[in-house]
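Lecture notes, unit on protein representations.

Consider one protein chain, 199 amino acids long.
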Amino acid sequence: MTPTEYKQKVLTISRGFQMSRDIEDCAQMAAKNPLYLSVLRSILNEIVENHDWQNPHCARILHILINSETSGSLFHILDFVKRLPENVPFALVELLGSLLPSYKKIVLGPAKDLCESEPGSPQRAVGIQTLCNLHLDGLLPGENLPYLADLLKGFEVDPFFTDYLVDLVRSTVSFRDRGKVTVEAAPDLTDILIEIGDD
């Protein structure tokens, strides 16, 4: 299948019982052929350039990239995140924050880098939400808990409902217990497809 044919296949995925299977098929193809990853990236580039956040293909392409389970797909998603403008819908930020933990430990460094972005930016929100979801899923290594505890200690409310996840993490026993001990000692995808709707 040529890259052009692959793009057509991706763009003809529609909602319905077949959607999950089509996304998985496209993901497997992308995992085997780097040219297909470039096709997916070009579609995301068009979405960013046109600020077409309600485009249903946006969420589907992100799911395809995640399900391809390649380092190249993570690179393309991070590039997409870094180009998001401040007025991006919170649903897209939430989607990214929930999908990126699928990369587990490999996403820790990039997520921390995003957390160092400007306060109130979508990049910082994606970073914090990714780390929070890693913690809630039991995927955050214990040695990273002091970093998360310190990050949440200085967290300020943003436009992307990150405070909901922050409060949820703060309320967990594992965070309170391990975070308290560690911080004081030093003054530790998806079957459900999310569509981006109107905000």
